[in-house]
Design goal:
Radius of gyration: 24 Å
Helix content: 10-25%
Number of helices: 6
Structural class: alpha+beta
Strand content: 15-25%
Distance between the termini: 17 Å
Keywords: Transferase
Pfam families: Transferase
InterPro entries: CAT-like_dom_sf (IPR023213), Sec_Metabolite_Acyltrans (IPR051283)
Largest sheet: 6 strands, mixed
GO molecular function, one term: transferase activity
Shape: globular
Protein name: BAHD acyltransferase
């Protein structure tokens, strides 16, 4: 099995925005403050190796990040606490980290093939297990590019007290757009020796018939159906007694639910953790209902992130990611389409073993 022991640091530098910030301090709101104890958000894309030297791509990524940071001044700042105890983001252009490393003994297949995500993947991210409160004296953002034997992993760690998942992917998508360059190669089946013969008076247009356009929309999984299925399956795998009260928590985007509504591009945390309670033997499919508040004794599942986040279309110029990886239990839209979903689940070993022994569940699961 591949090991991370030979992960080699090639370079580490700090990136400044290409324009100085004029944004004043931003006070952390009631939905931001609870995130100070949360770890940095860690998300990254696994890509095939680009067709050009990676060093040239590193330079473009650094330039793209510098331009993107000018649009997101809070990401280049630091947290500070005033004498009254209020916490702010100081947009003071304090730099972010950019790390370039290599792990040429690791192939893309080594990351995709195992049923369990390899333990070394956590080293593909900066600030592993770092609480967001550390943004008082550490960068709010760190980007890490890992060269693999036949691919590249681009990981981003971002302070969770400064952004939620919506803001994270808004930033990351803009970073990708700015960093992407056109492909000027002329190496394709379109290169032919044929010569186009054009009349001296120029080409003429002719429409033979009426053009028609039709669009189709495939049936998609309902988000709540997936969430309830996960809760039910994990509850079964834990083998809890039927009288045990279980808790399912989910992070909910509140931008469009507030009055007045927040802008969909509001930058910061605008999520709330919504709990639902049920006894382990309760069948929600046949008897859906709301339950009174219960206890917090470990019989709980928490789901964050969102299947609506645009993760799989990030193309830096050499193709979409073959997979998304993170350090959290997340649910994403299936990259393959066709009604599939991608699941990255973190459970206790005995619970995971029980889930893998569930033949009904495993019938619908494939490796990825």
């Amino acid at each position: 099995m591949a090991s991370s022991q030979s992960l080699t640091l090639i370079s580490k530098c700090t990136i400044l925005p290409d324009q100085k910030s004029i944004l004043s301090d931003l006070k952390l709101l009631v939905s931001d403050l609870p995130m100070l104890s949360y770890h940095y958000i860690q998300k990254g894309g696994l890509f095939t190796r680009p067709p050009v030297p990676i060093d040239s791509r590193i330079f473009l990524l650094q330039c793209g990040l510098s331009q993107t940071l000018s649009l997101f001044p809070p990401l280049v700042g630091r947290l500070k606490t005033d004498p009254s105890g209020y916490v702010y983001i100081t947009c003071n252009d304090a730099e972010v980290d950019f790390i370039h490393a290599s792990a040429i003994h690791i192939h893309v297949r080594d990351i995709l093939s195992p049923t369990d995500v390899p333990n070394y993947v956590k080293e593909f991210f900066a600030f592993d297990r770092t609480p967001s409160y550390d943004g008082h004296f550490k960068p709010i953002l760190a980007m890490q590019v890992i060269e693999l034997a036949d691919g590249v992993f681009i990981g981003c760690a971002l302070n969770h007290a400064v952004t939620d998942g919506m803001s994270f992917w808004n930033f990351f998508n803009i970073f990708v757009e700015i960093s992407r360059v056109p492909d000027f190669r002329r190496e394709s089946v379109l290169i032919l020796p044929a010569v186009l013969r054009v009349p001296e008076d120029g080409p003429k247009s002719q429409i033979d018939g009426e053009a028609k356009q039709q669009s189709f929309e495939g049936r998609r999984w309902e988000d709540n159906a997936v969430e309830m299925a996960i809760k039910h399956l994990v509850t079964c795998a834990r083998k809890l007694p039927s009288s045990k009260t279980t808790t399912f928590r989910m992070a909910v985007n509140c931008r469009h639910r507030l009055e007045p509504k927040l802008d969909s591009y509001y930058f910061g945390n605008a999520i709330q953790s919504i709990p639902t309670y049920a006894s382990a033997d309760n069948d929600w499919e046949w008897d859906p209902q709301c339950f009174p508040l219960g206890n917090f004794d470990g019989a709980m599942i928490t789901m964050g992130s969102s299947p609506r986040f645009p993760m799989n279309n990030n193309d830096f110029g050499w193709g979409r990611p073959v997979a998304i990886r993170s350090g959290q239990a997340n649910q994403f839209d299936g990259r393959e389409g066709g009604g599939t979903v991608d699941l990255e689940v973190v459970l206790e070993p005995e619970t995971m073993e029980g889930l893998e022994l569930d033949s009904k569940f495993m019938y619908y699961v494939s490796g990825y």
